[in-house]
Amino acid sequence: MYSKEIKTAQKHLGKLLQAQFERAERLKQKEEPLDYGSLDTIEIGIAGGDGIGPFLAAKAREVLEYLLAEEIKAGKVNLKNIEGLTIENRIKTGRAIPPIVLDELKQCHVILKGPTTTPDSGYDLPNIESANVAMRRALDLFANVRPVKIPQEKIDWVFFRENTEGAYVLGSQGIELQGGLALDFTVTTRPGTERIIRAAFQYARENKRTRVTAVTKANVIKTTDGQFLEIAREVAQEYPEIEFDDWYIDIMTAKLIDTSRRADFQVFVLPNLYGDILTDEAAQFQGGVGTAGSANLGTRYAMFEAIHGSAPRMVKEGRAEYADPSSMLRAGAMLLEHIGYQEKARRLDLALDVCGLYERKVALTGRPDGATGQEFAAYLRETLANPRLEEVWAKYQ
Ligand code: IPM
Ligand code: MG
Hints:
The chain has helices spanning 3-28, 53-67, 69-73, 87-93, 99-106, 131-138, 190-206, 224-236, 249-255, 272-286, 312-316, 326-338, 342-358, 373-385, 389-395, and strands at residues 42-47, 77-82, 110-113, 143-150, 155-162, 175-177, 181-183, 211-216, 243-248, 267-270, 293-297, 302-306. It contains 15 helices and twelve strands. Helix 12 (326-338) runs antiparallel to helix 13 and helix 13 (342-358) crosses helix 15. It starts with a helix and ends with a helix. By secondary structure, it is α/β, with parallel strands linked by helices. It has a domain at 32-141 and 298-397: 3-Layer(aba) Sandwich (Isopropylmalate Dehydrogenase). Strand 4 (143-150) and strand 5 (155-162) form a beta hairpin. The strands form two sheets. The protein has a ten-stranded mixed sheet with strand order 2-1-3-12-11-4-5-10-8-9, with helices on both faces. Bound molecules: 3-isopropylmalic acid (IPM) and magnesium ion. Magnesium ion binds at residues 276, 280.
């Protein structure tokens, strides 16, 4: 019984395994990270994406142009819009990232990306893979770094989400068999796990953080999460000055709402899917996913994005201009910091704190009863131009 079905599935699985072995081999070849200081011109690509994305990207571009005015004039930095990373184009080409767009992305050093629509199997659209997931894989952006800060509560978290493996790497290549038997796959590799765990510990060391917490479900997902945890314990030995502990994802989601304990956590490292889920929860405490930026870091490339989606509902209801650009602007600050403009990044973060968290003279609600993204961006520009920004910010600490 079912022998034909099983044979087809085995063949499919064989192909997946072959590709995963090859990927793991590639990961063993270590590359030197790109040194932005050595480049004549840093190419920054700005891809608007779908839905509210282009609205937010336009605001982010304005702010970057303002902060990098001198560097742009001197030819040290070039901002380039990358068109065509849209759901329409992806459907037309049948590819998660149209090849022409991917070529353009690869000519940049860093990318600021707006949200892109990801159809799921229930959509009225072909079930193509997420552009985010495809880009993370195509550019090998293995570390998804997502900070969440709530100064009043002394919360200062940084999540290191593994970004190229886990439940995502074969997320579009599960097997559906007769009778409704469906299988998906989770994959971890030793080099893929080691590099994200090292990135988290290294960050902790360089930023004087004293604790790293791994989050898994190794008590149930024993093989893949089990290996992730085992490697985390091994790598922790190389960082004796940093306290290491581990939690299961279920209790971790509970601990994040435990106000008596949550400020004790500092740096988290976790597999892809748990990282996806936990960072939305964490961002909600800070004011919602519209307020959190995210860095997708690899060795050669880096991409910065909002952690929210493209909000097609807002566009359909004519509310796109009311979308909050803060998340993309936070991503812009992370981009600036990554390419070596720490002071500009810090100023942008301070200004976003003042405008979005403290003063809130121009408040966004996502609806016509609140401000538009344009009004918020103008307020932000004004705040950035204030020579006393530091003092304004310090007042609220
Ligand atoms: C994110 C998003 C993506 C993900 C979606 C859009 C595929 O939720 O960046 O967190 O699941 O990674
Ligand atoms: Mg997510």
